[in-house]
Amino acid sequence: MNSDYNYNKERHKKMIIRSQDLKRQGKNIFIENSEEYFELSKYEQAVEEQVFWNKRLEFFLIMKNFLDNIINFDEFETAFTLLYRKTCKEFDMFVIDLKQIEKFQPSTRTRSDRFANSISAIFRAFEEVEDEYSTEQEVKSYVEKIYLKFQNFLNEE
Amino acid sequence: MPQAEYSALTKAEKRQLPDPMGRDRFIEEVGRPRLTLRYNQVEYKTPKHGPDHNLPVNNKGKSDKIQENALALRDSLLKMPNRSNIIWFEHEQYQGGTPQGSDSVNLYDPDTNLIAVYAKQPDGTYSFLTTCVLRPAEADHLKKSGGNFLTQKMLDQKTAVTEYNPNQDSKNTNNEQ
Hints:
heterodimer; A: mainly alpha; 71% helix; elongated; B: alpha/beta; seven-stranded mixed beta sheet; globular
């Protein structure tokens, strides 16, 4: 990710501890101090990007199978949803695990678009089809756009 | 309701009709807008968003569309105001600034990032539309905007996004969900 902030691991860990302490007291960091919340959120989004990027080959295989008509829309939604929810769970565990954070380094990739956000956007598109705001074909075009946007970066760590 | 009138309704509007089996519920908190949970709308959202409320998940990553699950989702939504740090975003929006936008009351739990959207109906009441767990960027936008829930897909379509401006009245009038 092309970071627009300087990553500070010690500060990140301190913010996690602060957030967890507040949680134990029944409080929430956003309600108590929104500046601290937004700082922690920046770190969390860097973690989220890394967790999703680590799954990029799996997401791309599902997207390619859909774009190549190997799987239909329903099969795509199922495969994508299962992987998406699994990845979200991994993120949920990672983001509060200080041992994992100790080893974490944000990506130095040069592209500015966030992969995690694009994957979440595809997931949200399923609901647009359900609510009849989008068609399956429109979702396919959207998936193709994202596939093309990221395919040249697949080999970056 | 006369058949002709019923037939003219959209599917979304039909889901907001009272449940003849009495499974609708209402959130009535002092000093807050009254929120309606129509069973048919809750049931409709059960497969996709049951997992967000910890309902059982099938091998397709969804919750089965059965009455037991729909009632569990309804009751989970009903209890949301009791969560310790719940935030009421009143007179706010869902997908505000986009063609899908609607005025809404958004109930948000910052501890879990769970949101429930109650869209304003033509008669001025608020009725359950959808619920989900926000991704971090969606949660940031919700908070920075003072309560406009834009999904990640809309956030990515930056041209459709209007940044929050308290001096600008950007409320939507399209409430046909």
